[in-house]
Amino acid sequence: MTKRSTSTHKDGNRHTFSQNGTQSDPTGKLQDEDDRKVGLGKKVTLLRGISIIIGTIIGAGIFISPKGILKHSGSIGMSLIVWIACGVLSLFGALSYAELGTCIKKSGGHYTYIMEAFGPQMAFIRLWADLIAIRPAGMAVISLAFGQYILEPLFMPCHIPPVAVKLATAIGITSIMYLNSMSVTWTARIQIFLTFSKLLAIAFIIVPGLYQLFKGETRNFENAFELNNVQLSGMPLAFYSGMYAYAGWFYLNFVTEEVENPERTVPLAICISMGIVTSCYVLTNVAYYTVMSPEELLASDAVAVTFAEKLMGNFSVAVPVFVALSCYGSMNGCLFALSRMFYVASREGQLPEVLSMIHVRRNTPLAAVLILYPMTMLQLFVGDIYSLLNFMSFLRWLFIGLVVLGLIYLRYTKPDLPRPFKVPLFIPVIFCLTCFFMVFLSLYSDPVNTGIGFVISLTGIPAYYIFIYFDHKPKWLQRASGD
Fold it and tell me: Is the residue at 141 inside a domain?
C-alpha cells in the first residue's frame, strides 16, 4: 500500500508522493520515478463490462419470487407487459447513464454525476446514505440469499439453522472481499464465469419451458389478458417490483476510468446487457407459466425450484446451487463497482485519504474494497436488514432520478461539453418522471418507513459540515481524514 504526502512542483501543480517514490498527477493517477503508472489500469473490456452489468442485475429474484409483479398486475398477460415495459424503462435509464459516462469520464457513478451537476454537498449526502446504511444492508441481503441457497442441498428437506446461514454468509462475504483485494483481473474473470453460470441456469428454465410451449402446453395463456383481477391501483406496485428486479444497470458507470475505450464500450455494453436481461426475464416468466398456473406460482416460495420439481425431478436439487452462484456474482459485481465510488470520493476529499490509495503490486484500491466489510458484518449479525432496506428503497430512485435530472440540467448549463454518445431528450425526461413517480409512490404507500429513510439521509447534512466544510476541525479528525 502506498503512503502518500503532497508537495507543490515547480510547475505550480500539486503532486502526491508515496513512500516508495511514486507520485500522482492532479488527476489522481499514481506514477513511479520511471513514469510508469501505478494506478488502476484499463482492464474492463466489452465482455467484462457486459458481465458486470448482467452479473449484478440478475440476482436471486428471477429464480425465487417473480410473483410480486403477477400479484399486483392481476393477470399473466399484464405481468409479461410489465416485465417488458420495465426492461424498456431501465434501458432508458441505462442510456442516460451511458451519455453521462462518455462525457464525464470519471469513475464513481451516481456520486460523481451528482457532484458534477449539483455540487459537493448533495454528492456527500448520497455518499453518506450509501456508506452508513444502503450498501451494507444491500450486500448483507444478497449475501444472506447466497448463504441460504448454498446450504439448501445439504439440508434438504430439513430447515437450515439460522446460525449456519449466517456463518456461510460471512464466509461468502469474506471471500468476495479477499478476491477484490487481491486482483482486478481475477475479479473480472470470475465475474465472467459467474455471469455465464447464471445465464446457463436461466437457459435450463427457458429451453424446457419453451419446449413445453411448442408441444401445446398453452392452457395458462388462454385467458392471459383477462381483466377481472386487474386493478389500476396495483399497477404502480407491479412496476415498482419490476424496476427493482432490473436494478444494477448503472454499475459499469462506477468503473468508467478502468473501461477500455469508454466512448464505445459503455454504450455498447449497456445496450447488449439490457437486451439480454430483458429477453431472459420475459422468456423465463413465459417458461414458468407453461408449467405452473398463476395460483401455483403465487403459492410458491421459490418459483424456479417448484418449476424444476415439476419438470426435471431430482435435477431440481441443482437449482439452489445455481441461485447461490447467481447471488455470488451479484455480490462480486457490486463490491467491485462500489469500491470505486469510495475511491473517487476519497480522491475528491470527502472520505479519508487512505481510501484513495492503491496497492503498489496488486493495483487494487485495497482500503476502498475493505471499507464495507465491518458495516456489512455488523448488519448481518445484529441489524434488522430488511427493515433498513424498506427505509432506503425510495432513496435509490430519488438519487437516480436526481442523476438523470442532472443530465438534463447539464445539457443547458454546459452545452459545449463533449458528448460522444447523446440520447434524445425524451429518454431522460421519461425516465426521470418514472423515478420521481416511484418516490411519490413510496411516500404514499409507506410514509413511516420512507420518512425514517429520509431522516437517515438528512443526517448527511450535519456530517458534511462537521467532516468536510469546516476548516478548523479537531486534530484527531484531521489525522483521521489525512489533512
Answer: yes
Please work out, in degrees rounded to the nearest 5, the angle formed at the alpha carbon of residue 339 by the alpha carbons of 336 and 343.
Answer: 140
Q: Which residues are bridge partners to 5 per DSSP?
A: 17
The three cell numbers of residue 470 are 469546516
Nearest-angstrom CA–CA distance, 133 and 454 = 12
- Does this model's pTM top 0.85? My answer is no
Domain contains 432 = yes
| First-to-final CA distance of the chain | 19
Tell me whether residue 481 is in a domain.
no
Q: The CATH number of the domain where 396 resides is what?
A: 1.20.1740.10
Q: What's the Cα-to-Cα distance from 307 to each of 180, 345, 471, rounded to whole Å? A: 35, 45, 61
The pLDDT tens digits of the residues spanning 60-94 come to 778 766 778 888 887 888 889 999 999 999 999 99
Grid coordinates of 6? 503532497
234 secondary structure, DSSP code: G
Q: Is residue 208 part of a domain?
A: yes
Phi, psi of 397 (to 5 degrees): -75, -30
Interatomic CA distance for residues 406 and 395, integer angstroms: 16
- Give dist(CA 261, CA 34) in Å, integer: 25
> 319: number of CA atoms within 13 Å, CB side?
25
Chain centre distance of CA 114: 17
Task: Decide if 44 contacts 258 (C-beta within 8 A).
Answer: yes
Q: For the chain, how many structural domains are there in total?
A: 1
